[in-house]
Specification:
- The structure is a single chain.
- By secondary structure, this protein is of the alpha+beta class.
- It folds into 2 domains: 37 residues; 45 residues, SH3 type barrels.
- The chain is built from 2 helices and 5 strands, in the order ααβββββ.
- It has a 5-stranded antiparallel beta sheet, with helices on one face.
- The longest helix has 34 residues.
- The protein is rod-shaped and about 75 Å long.
Length: 102
């Protein structure tokens, strides 16, 4: 219904070139807004939450990496974390590889 209203010929006769570009611009604007609210904005929000979680990591936190490795943080610096995955096994990962905090 809304699409029909946007693409209707102007009242008063022939549907010449008057105002023919306006409905097209309105449609492109509407498509952009829909894409922004359905795709771009949620992704930005998720990215901010991930960055906040990474900045709050501390020694002793239980985490899961992007490869599925479970571990406990033993040491941390700006770019990496040292995870204890078993009694005698420590592995160093990039902080960006940490996906969840348990």
């Amino acid at each position: 219904m809304i699409l029909n209203l946007l693409f209707m010929a102007p009242p008063g006769g022939q549907g010449g070139g008057d105002g023919g570009m306006m409905p097209t611009l309105i449609m492109f604007g509407a498509i952009f807004l829909i894409m922004y609210f359905l795709m771009i904005r949620p992704q930005q929000k998720k990215q901010k939450e991930q960055q906040k979680m990474l900045s709050e990591l501390q020694k002793g936190d239980k985490v899961v990496t992007s490869s599925g490795m479970y571990g406990t943080i033993q040491d941390s610096d700006e770019e990496t974390v040292l995870l204890k995955v078993s009694d005698n096994t420590n592995i160093r990962f990039l902080k960006s590889a940490v996906t969840q905090k348990k």
